[in-house]
Amino acid sequence: MVVDAMSFLDVRYRNGGNRAEEGFDCSGFTRHLFAANLGMNLPRRSHDQAAAAGLVAVPRDDLMPGDLVFFNTMRRAFSHVGIYVGKGRFIHAPRAGAAVRIEDMKVSYWASRFDGARRVADASDAAVPAAPAPRSVPASPTVASQADPAAGAGH
């Protein structure tokens, strides 16, 4: 899935976008990749993806390429989503005026807003379901100068 995700680098952001031809928003990007690569239909909105059946919670220290990573970018939990690509980085559709790109999760903007991660459940970890996504949590006021404070519309 990560190789496929990389093929969409520089595809423009479009609010509500679900296809490369029209552009992606964050959850449209992850939804497209999960359907194309895993045959899994994720919900349309990022906070609903965080609570989706068939996914399990993953600690930050156990991330693997292909895991969904969630961030609080709009003063509410799970308002932005991307796909972990390895080495502390993730790929996502960030915001209007930008395009699909890779970011470093260690940059303070992303590190302070990390809400959790999800992975497709298999028989060995199906007993650890993802927690329901809360609907409202204040964001941390720390914003790194390198980061994009307008990232993530949560669509």
Describe it for me?
- The two termini are about 20 Å apart.
- Strand 4 and strand 5 form a beta hairpin.
- The chain is α+β, with helices and mostly antiparallel strands and about 160 residues long.
- Strands 3-8-4-5-6-7 form a six-stranded antiparallel β-sheet. Strands 1-2 form a two-stranded antiparallel sheet.
- Helix content is about 20%, strand content about 20%.
- The model is unreliable at about 125-150 (pLDDT under 50).
- About 40% of the residues are buried.
- The protein is globular.
- The protein has a single domain (about 1-120), classed as endopeptidase fold (from Nostoc punctiforme).
Q: What's the oligomerization state?
A: single chain
Top-tier CATH class: Alpha Beta
Rounded radius of gyration (Å)? 14 Å
CATH architecture: Alpha-Beta Complex
Q: Report the helical percentage.
A: 10-25%
- Please provide the count of β strands: 8
Look at the structure and give the mean pLDDT. Answer: 85
- Taken as a percent bin, the fraction of beta residues is 15-25%
Order of helix and strand elements from N to C terminus: HEEHHEEEEEHE
* CATH structural fold name: endopeptidase fold (from Nostoc punctiforme)
Number of helices: 4
